[in-house]
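MOLECULE: protein
FOLLOWS: sequence and fold
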Amino acid sequence: MQALNDDQQMAAIEAKVDKLEEKIDSGFAEMRADSAAVRAQIVSTERALRTEIVAVRSDAREENLTARSEAREANLTARSEARADFRTLLTVLVSLWAATVLTVLAAHL
C-alpha cells in the first residue's frame, strides 16, 4: 500500500509541477506581450518626438531666414540713407566753399 501511496504522491507532485510550469509559461508569454506593447509605445513616442523636433527646427530656420532678410533690408536702407546724407553734406560743403572763394575773390577785386 505504501508504494501506491508514493506513486500517488509523485503523480500529485508532478501534476502540481506541471500546473506551475504552465503558469510560469503563461506569465512569461504575458510579460513578452506587455514588453512588446511597451516597446511599441516607446517607438511611437520617439517617432512623434522626432517629428516634433524636425518641425521646430524647420520653424526656427524659417524664422532665422526671415530675420536675416529683414536685417539685410534694414542695413541696405540705412546705407542708402547714409549715402544720401553724405551727398547732402558734400553739396553743402562745396556750396560753402564756393561761396567763401567767391567772397574772398570779390573782396580782393
Q: What stands out?
A: The chain has one helix and no strands. The CA atoms of residues 6 and 63 lie 84 Å apart. Residues 2-108 form the longest helix (107 residues).
